[in-house]
Write a structure and sequence with these properties.
By secondary structure, this protein is of the alpha/beta class. Helix content is 39%, strand content 21%. Strand 6 and strand 7 form a beta hairpin.
């Protein structure tokens, strides 16, 4: 059985498709835990409605630490992760959608590789339909005390306590110690490649991760990043984006170009015709939002609530 989990805080106002993210993961999971950081924008009220509609959904509230560091996300993610009851865990973020074609494959993984402990999947990050980057992320694993969220919560990995224990035990085994020194303990037990303990799998369709889906939500998030990281190019592009907010195709093309200026040099720079995903290839639950000229911000659809009753 599989426990899914997610953290949220004011994601409704930020335009995260969190309702669709939960709905897309529910067919895989036997329970789905959501931890809300005392949202004040209506997020919690939507989650209460979801909980009332589907008994798999377990809802918690947790006050987030005051400090403004990436570690806050890791701390709150691990709090809800520790509440997971079942043999396997699946970490889902509020802007990530499981494609319906991949659902039966992910659900079958424990039977296909019962000896593997951790699994990595391909994640495609998009700005509406435009590609930003793609990478493997470790988000599915056996429910072992040694596995927890690491970094800023973007992936699962081995806990510091587990790594210390393994290092101490390896002192008596020079061959194993040499392997740990060369590869690292995380590489043995929680890498995003290939090994007995940890496996990477191409899914029928990648996981879809949306940096933003709607123009107004994008500008809010974009300007927040400019203020937080003091990136001058963000300020220069913001006015041009606002001028083209009613032209979805031009807006998203400009938005993707603006974001690409700030990405690391190691990230791909997609060229035509490989820089976007056609609407028909996105998860069915999200297609209404792709290049929709009639919507400039995220909205919760009543039909999704009806769907949630059946998942």
């Amino acid at each position: 059985m599989i426990s899914g989990f997610m953290i949220v805080k004011d994601v409704l106002g930020q335009g995260y498709p969190f309702v669709e993210a939960i709905a897309s993961a529910l067919p895989i999971c036997d329970e789905f835990l959501v931890s809300d950081g005392y949202s004040s924008d209506g997020t919690y009220e939507v989650l209460e409605k979801i909980k009332a509609l589907n008994p798999k959904v377990k809802l918690y509230r947790q006050q987030w630490p005051k400090k403004r560091t990436a570690n806050v996300l890791t701390t709150v993610t691990n709090e809800v992760r520790r509440k997971c009851r079942f043999e396997y865990i699946f970490s889902v973020q509020a802007n990530e959608i499981v494609h319906e074609d991949s659902v039966p494959f992910i659900k079958a993984l424990p039977r296909m590789l019962p000896y593997a402990e951790t699994f990595s999947f391909p994640y495609l990050q998009l700005l509406n339909r435009y590609k930003l980057t793609e990478e493997f992320r470790l988000r599915f694993s056996k429910n072992l005390p040694s596995i927890e969220a690491i970094g800023d919560g973007w992936t699962l990995g081995t806990s510091k306590a587990f790594e210390r224990k393994k290092k101490l035990r390896a002192i008596a085994n020079p061959k194993r110690l040499f392997g740990y020194v060369n590869n690292g303990i995380w590489h043995t037990y929680a890498n995003s490649g290939y090994g007995r303990h940890s496996r990477a799998f191409y899914l029928p369709k990648p996981m879809f991760r949306y940096w933003s889906l709607f123009p107004t939500d994008f500008i809010k998030k974009y300007e927040k990043h400019w203020q937080l990281f003091q990136i001058s190019s963000f300020q220069n592009s913001s006015e041009e984006l606002k001028e083209n907010i009613r032209d979805p195709e031009k807006f998203w093309h400009l938005g993707a170009a603006a974001l690409n200026k700030t990405l690391s040099k190691e990230r791909p720079r997609y060229i035509e015709p490989y820089n976007s995903v056609e609407k028909k290839d996105h998860p069915a639950i999200i297609r209404e939002f792709i290049s929709n000229p009639d919507a400039d911000h995220y909205y919760v659809r009543e039909e999704i609530f009806e769907l949630l009753k059946k998942l």
